[in-house]
Amino acid sequence: MLGTGIGLLLLTTYGLRVFPFMGAHTAVPLGYDPGLYKAIFEAYANQLPNIHPGQLDFWMTQHEMGLFLFTNLLHVLSYTSSFLLTFFFAFLATLVGIYLWLLIGERYPEKKWLTAFLTLGFFLLSICQYQVFWWGYYKNMLGLIFMLVSLFLLHRKSWLSLLPLGFLLLVHRPTALYTAGLITVYLLWHLFLAIQKGMKEKKVSKAVLDFIKDHLEIRVGLLALLLFLPFYFSNFNSSILTLAARIGRSFTMNAAAGTFFSIPEYLFLSHWYWPLALYGLYESLRKKHFGYLEAGFVFGMLWVFLKLYFYSRMIIQLDIFLIAMAVIGIIELTPWIRRFRQIAAICLTVLFILIGWQTVQYVKTNGRPLIKWQEFEFIQSLPDKMEENAIIISTHKHYSAWLMGYSGRDVIAPGLFDLDRWGKAQWEDFWKGTATLRAEMLKDYADLKRPLYIFVGITQPHYFFDDSNCFKYINRGSFDFIKYICNE
Amino acid sequence: MSKSSDLITSGLLLFIAFVMPKFFQAPAVAGWIVGSAVFFILPGYWLLKIFTGLKIENIIMHLTLSFPLSLGYLSLASFLVNQAGVDITYFSLLGLSSLPCLVWLSKMAWKGR
Predict the structure, then answer these.
(1) Quick check: A138 contacting B, CB < 8 Å?
(2) A295 lies in the same domain as A393
(3) What's the pTM?
(4) Interface with chain A: mutation pick from B39, B79, B89, highest number of A CBs within 10 Å
(5) Digit-coded pLDDT (tens) for A456-467
(6) Backbone angle region of A31, left / alpha / beta, with phi > 0 → left and psi within -120 to 50 → alpha
(7) Within this chain, do residues A396 and A362 fall inside the same structural domain, yes or no?
(8) Which domain covers residue B55, as residue numbers?
(9) Out of A76, A98, A102, whose CB is closest to B93?
(10) Distance from CA of B113 to the nearest CA of A (A)
(11) How far is CA A55 from CA A40, A50, A76, A305, A400, in A?
């Protein structure tokens, strides 16, 4: 019975994620990032049978290479980029729930099926986890998988944890940071207990030495850093020092939050989970059980509520531990549930229905691509409409990633990619100025001696190019595609 | 599963993965059908076996853990061997996939010495 339920939960989780790809116009990825990922997937794949990250565009080298080594393998196996960004990504998003179950299952080995049912149920209904998928946060998703697998293997005290932990460093730095943070909180807690015990027995140094000997996390963590940091040496300044400086600054001033839910939004969308999770934490502390799940929950709350660097994006990891603690909360309520069987069954059913209703409403409203099908189709057809060496100017950040991933041409975009030569003020002039001014400004790119095209999408302000002879409309309608002809 | 059936199954899978592209003359078929099974499961499965101190209760759990371990291992290994001058092709990845199994065999041979 529970086994069937678990199978259904997994199928529903996958179904909820692939649903938008099953319509008449399939394979439009959700969110914003897929365009960027597609460009990088293909840049790496085009280098095969070699891997030379140093020869890629500069903006691509700013992304950790782990995910792209991974997609390279899948390209060798004939997986296409479009498939990786839709159905395969949904598959990975479903797997996160399974690895979370494995980790929580370690806590209650005698209640594995119940734990599985609750974990997958809460995971399915988590709007936050759905949103990670919707935004197309591929590295984040893979990072979650490797974080959970590392913690599972560390819990089993296996040196094999070195592999997923080290690979996590190459996949997603924020998730690696979160993992390091939670392990630090876990170790500090247990070190404190060890010292306390040592003081009672008047053998503090022995207690500390035993602590170091007993905790594999210290050795594995240090070795992972030692082995995998060399991968970052080529861009040490931008990948490690900049990150450290940003984290440091976030203690004293407002930090960059990252694109995700704000804290009030997240609390509103996850409010059903919090009482259970806090009860779970309370019971764990009361029973003096402070494992990775508790440490992850505490560390996440500290990071997010203190609004440290990238805190909005850290909500994703916090939510994983919120789900875990909510499951623990329910399991700790089991004696009460047994006592008041009928009332408890009604309460739990109502709870699941309420969360389910909220999730379904959310998915119904938000579960669609950011780009219209006609625009997506048009962007994909651009290689047939342009010269090989043409460049497209994206006039709105909304379209930059799509153009980069699907047009097959270089893109100039505000604040993105390598070809942009303008600052914010110049882009403001370009957006607000006349067509004559725009034509004048585009002379900044004359030295490239490459054809220039401008894309203006449906959902952005409409610009007019008629009052200058330098522009020729290739497509005119709900979205425009214009050629700059004064450099020919 | 017993050690010998593990070895026979892995050997068979590797053999099929090796001959499939030649047989069908279409790497896509081999990639999708057998390549995925070999690359997603085998290296992780043998890595778990090598770390014999690690107790994994059942085959489903073994396979579940094998997937990220396989892809993590193959991604890293492919990068490292490429830096050493080896091309990343379907067949070089097959070689990397079978490496953990060979390490396990060596370990067993060393133990039984």
Answers:
(1) no
(2) no
(3) 0.90
(4) B79
(5) 888 887 787 777
(6) left
(7) no
(8) 3-111
(9) A76
(10) 24
(11) 12, 11, 20, 40, 22
User: In this structure, are A354 and A382 located in the same domain?
Assistant: no
The DSSP-derived string for B47-68 is HHHHSTTS---SHHHHHHHHHH
Q: Is residue A32 over pLDDT 60?
A: yes
Looking at residue B34, its pLDDT comes to: 78
Task: Fill in the DSSP letter of residue A255.
Answer: P
Please indicate whether, in this complex, the C-beta atoms of A146 and B68 are within 8 angstroms of each other. yes
In this prediction the ipTM stands at: 0.90
What was the pLDDT predicted at A488? 67
User: pLDDT tens digit string along A109-153?
Assistant: 888 888 898 999 999 999 999 999 988 899 999 999 999 999 999
Domain for residue A33, yes or no? no
Contact A386, A410 (CB under 8 A): no
User: How far off is chain A from B88, nearest CA to CA, in Å?
Assistant: 4
Contact B31 A77 (CB under 8 A): yes
* Cβ under 8 Å to A: B residues 78-107: 78-79, 82-83, 87-90, 92-93
Here the tokens at position A205 are 């140094």
Q: Which residues span the domain enclosing A237?
A: 2-26+86-366
Q: Which residue of A has its CA nearest to B26?
A: A78
pLDDT at A376: 87
What is d(CA A265, CA A41) in angstroms, rounded to the nearest whole number? 32
A-to-B residue pairs, Cβ atoms closer than 8 angstroms: 91
Alpha-carbon distances, residue A392 vs A150, A386, A403 (angstroms): 43, 10, 8
**A378, A409: one domain:** yes
Q: Which of A366, A397, A418 is the last residue of a domain?
A: A366
Quick one: closest CA in A to B36, which residue?
A77
Locate the chain A residue with the closest alpha carbon to B56: A156
Residue A46 forms part of a structural domain: no
Q: By percentage, how much of chain A surpasses pLDDT 90? A: 34
Would A61 be classed as within a structural domain? no
Nearest-CA distance A312 → chain B (Å): 27
Domain count, chain A: 2
Cis peptide before A49 (omega within 30 of 0): yes
The structural domain count of chain B equals 1
| Cα–Cα dist A89/A81, whole Å | 11
Q: How far is A96 from chain B (nearest CA, A)?
A: 11
Query: Of A366, A395, A422, which closes a domain?
Result: A366
On whether both A468 and A328 belong to a single domain, the answer is no
- Shared domain for A359 and A386, answered yes or no, is no
CA B53 to CA B51: how far, in whole Å?
6
Residue A388 has φ and ψ, to the nearest 5°, of -55, -40
The shortest C-alpha distance from B5 to chain A (Å) reads: 24
A188 and A151 both lie in a single domain: yes
Q: What's the N-to-C CA distance of chain B in angstroms?
A: 24
Q: Is residue A171 part of a domain?
A: yes
In this structure, the answer to whether residues A247 and A266 fall within a common structural domain is yes
Q: What mean pLDDT do residues A21-37 have?
A: 76
